[in-house]
Design a protein that fits this description.
The protein contains twelve helices and nine strands. It is an alpha/beta fold and about 280 residues long. The strands form two sheets. It has a six-stranded mixed β-sheet, sandwiched between helices. The chain has a three-stranded mixed β-sheet with strand order 5-7-8. Helix 10 packs antiparallel against helix 11. The mean pLDDT is about 95. It binds ligand LTDHYY67.
Length: about 280
């Protein structure tokens, strides 16, 4: 295995295609429930891959029978004694503030990662799983998949991304509220028709083949173009059109001077598809 492939306890990282990194949630015996180790490692993984020049695209999936059962509730309960010992509401709140901020930073790392992140979901994607997929660039699933914003059944408002990002992915605001307020399962066909996922595959095997092909296609493009597109789309989501036009003008005043632009324009003009871009 190349030294440029990070190694973790709760995530399995491989390189199935040139420049395509596959990150697998790897606690199959606990249906990929997210314990403290996994929350920490998710942040470390995407921060590391963001600056890894051998990585151009990242595909995330779950090992075993389902994508993820959400937060590891047993692990979460370990915070209870610490809270009980804290003197008063201000001290208890500080402990929770730190925990929530750490988890939020972990799930913002996919968005902050300069490389596109594609999620391939099979079977269940529950609770924190929906927070996670709301933070990636493109979602795919298999026919047996469902998405469940389960936090309401735990007596809490989701706090690591779903309520902030899902309404910007699904256009139907009433539907977002219904999903979050009832905790009902959104099945694959509904996820497709409402734009949460881009494609539904017959089964996990076909999904992984299909998603890796899409990732390979993206990885064959200029990394200057791909990283610029990701950054600018996220910027445009959060800013006005005017500000976003300024952002891309500032970006491209540098990036249009790159070798990638010159060689891609030449390849288009000469109808050549034999083009290799430097690592970024
Ligand atoms: C600051 C807070 C930040 C984030 C908060 C996020 C909130 C959420 O994520 S809410 C969602 C919480 N998750 C759930 O409610 C799901 C609970 N699990 C299930 O409903 C089921 O396990 C299942 C996903 C439907 C799968 O069922 P099945 O296939 O029958 O497997 P099981 O036998 O139930 O599970 C196998 C094994 O995994 C353990 N496990 C399952 N889910 C969790 C979990 N969320 N946390 C910890 N452990 C979990 C289960 O106990 C089994 O373990 P054994 O040791 O084999 O008993």
């Amino acid at each position: 295995m190349s030294s440029n492939v990070p190694s973790f306890k709760s995530l399995a990282v491989t390189v199935p295609k040139p420049f395509v990194y596959h990150v697998e949630f790897n606690r199959p015996e606990k249906v990929n429930a997210m314990n403290q180790t996994m929350w920490t490692e998710i942040g470390q993984c995407f921060n590391e891959l963001s600056f890894n020049p051998d990585c151009r695209v990242i595909v995330v999936s779950g090992a075993g029978k389902l994508f993820t059962a959400g937060i590891d509730v047993k692990d979460l309960m370990r915070v209870a004694p610490e809270l009980a010992e804290a003197e008063d509401v201000a001290r208890k709140a500080k402990i929770l503030q730190q925990l929530i901020s750490r988890f939020q930073a972990s799930f913002s790392s996919m968005e902050e990662c300069s490389k596109p992140v594609l999620a391939a979901v099979h079977s269940a994607c529950i609770g924190a799983g929906v927070d996670f997929v709301s933070g990636v660039d493109i979602r795919y699933c298999s026919k047996d998949a469902y998405f469940q914003v389960k936090e309401v059944d735990m007596g809490m408002a989701a706090d690591v991304g779903t309520l902030q990002r899902l309404p910007k992915i699904i256009g139907n605001q009433g539907l977002v509220r219904e999903l979050c307020l009832t905790g009902r399962k959104m099945m694959a066909d509904e996820a497709l028709s409402q734009g949460l996922v881009s494609k539904v595959f017959d089964d996990k095997e076909k999904m992984m083949d299909g998603v890796l092909k899409i990732a390979e296609d993206i990885a064959s493009k200029s990394p200057v173009a791909v990283q610029g597109i990701k950054r600018s789309l996220i910027y445009a989501r959060d800013h006005s059109v005017r500000d976003s036009l300024d952002q891309i003008a500032s970006w491209n005043q540098f990036m249009l001077q790159s070798d990638d632009f010159a060689s891609a324009v030449m390849a288009q003009a000469t109808k050549s598809d034999d083009i290799e871009f430097s690592k970024l």
